[in-house]
């Protein structure tokens, strides 16, 4: 059983989503948005840090997944987004959580099946996958999608490791049989 906190960073609105992953089962634990509602960036970053810290203390996640920065058309917006990500990451690192990062296209591909999915498609699939009664708010749905993507990627890594281990064992057995001849 693993509890994953997903974060969709934003300087004005940071989405969060918490799920529990047990075997093949995903369970919704909570989601929402950290609203900064102030004009100066330093105060917004402080609120993001405090909000993520509070969520971590409330849900006690085992792992932290966050969306990577993409290069926006507006460099100023990309810098602010990067700073919001940094505030969230520092909150997680201060609680000794391992950090995992995923590109937006990778998240959409993992959850919807296409990297070009729009927000409504992500919301619908998150609602379906987590068996929610209604679609979560867009930023919260994106954060839940990031957490879901992390479970998919983790499962793939485990399968790859198991395959590599099986191949290594086979190679050792083959080599030992060859050396006996």
Automatic annotation (TrEMBL):
Homodimer which binds Holliday junction (HJ) DNA. The HJ becomes 2-fold symmetrical on binding to RuvC with unstacked arms; it has a different conformation from HJ DNA in complex with RuvA. In the full resolvosome a probable DNA-RuvA(4)-RuvB(12)-RuvC(2) complex forms which resolves the HJ. The lineage of its organism: Bacteria, Pseudomonadati, Pseudomonadota, Gammaproteobacteria, Orbales. This is Crossover junction endodeoxyribonuclease RuvC. InterPro entries: RNaseH-like_sf, RNaseH_sf, X-over_junc_endoDNase_Mg_BS, X-over_junc_endoDNase_RuvC. Keywords: Cytoplasm, DNA damage, DNA recombination, DNA repair, DNA-binding, Endonuclease, Hydrolase, Magnesium, Metal-binding, Nuclease. Belongs to the RuvC family. SUPFAM superfamilies: Ribonuclease H-like (SSF53098). One of its GO terms (biological process) is DNA recombination. It catalyses: Endonucleolytic cleavage at a junction such as a reciprocal single-stranded crossover between two homologous DNA duplexes (Holliday junction). NCBIfam families: PRK00039.2-1, ruvC. Its main location: cytoplasm. GO terms for cellular component: cytoplasm; Holliday junction resolvase complex. Its EC number is 3.1.21.10. The active site is at 8, 67, 139. Mg(2+) 1 binds at residues 8, 139.
């Amino acid at each position: 059983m693993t509890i994953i906190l997903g974060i969709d960073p934003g300087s004005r609105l940071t989405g969060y989503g918490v799920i529990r992953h047990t075997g093949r089962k995903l369970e919704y634990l909570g989601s929402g948005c950290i609203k900064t509602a102030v004009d100066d960036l330093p105060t917004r970053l402080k609120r993001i840090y405090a909000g993520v810290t509070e969520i971590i203390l409330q849900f006690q996640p085992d792992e932290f997944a966050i969306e990577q920065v993409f290069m926006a058309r507006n460099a100023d917006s990309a810098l602010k987004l990067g700073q919001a990500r940094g505030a969230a990451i520092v909150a997680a690192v201060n609680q000794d959580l391992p950090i995992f990062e995923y590109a937006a296209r990778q998240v959409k591909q993992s959850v919807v099946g296409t990297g070009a999915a729009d927000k409504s498609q992500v919301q619908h699939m998150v609602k379906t996958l987590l068996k929610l009664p209604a679609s979560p708010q867009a930023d919260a749905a994106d954060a839940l999608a990031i957490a879901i993507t992390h479970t998919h990627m983790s499962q793939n890594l485990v399968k790859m490791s198991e395959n590599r281990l099986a191949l290594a064992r086979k190679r050792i057995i083959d080599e030992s049989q060859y050396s006996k001849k």
